[in-house]
Amino acid sequence: MKRWQWALLVALVVGSLVAEQLVHHEHHYWFTDIPGFFVIYGFIGCVAIIFLSKWYGKFGVQRPENYWEVHGDADPHEARTGVPDPGLADDPEADDEGER
After folding, report:
1. Concatenated DSSP letters of 58-71
2. What contacts 1, CB < 8 A, 6 or more positions away?
3. For residue 31, what is the DSSP state?
4. What value does the mean pLDDT of the chain take?
5. How far apart are CA 52 and CA 65, in angstroms?
6. Has residue 76 got a pLDDT over 70?
7. Greatest pairwise CA separation for the chain in angstroms
8. What is the number of other CB atoms lying within 10 angstroms of the CB of residue 50?
9. What local confidence, expressed as pLDDT, does residue 37 receive?
10. Which residues have C-beta within 8 Å of that of residue 73, sequence separation ≥ 6?
């Protein structure tokens, strides 16, 4: 980040902390009396979301680069079931000859 972006970020955090002290809140729990609790809580929550989504993307969603080479990309039905799709012709040129 550029220097002005860091300065803006610091100004927003400080402004948030000051605004939190100026507004009176009715506290229902002991931890809401901690100054800056919701700023810290939000920051930790955002960091957790980032790391969890990276972990999920790496181990749950992404496929290896050679995934389609190994599993085949011509017939997704066969890749899933091991049985060729009966709707696909074995010889694509046979369809062209029938249309002539």
Report:
1. IIII---TTHHHHH
2. 9
3. G
4. 79
5. 22
6. no
7. 82
8. 10
9. 85
10. 79
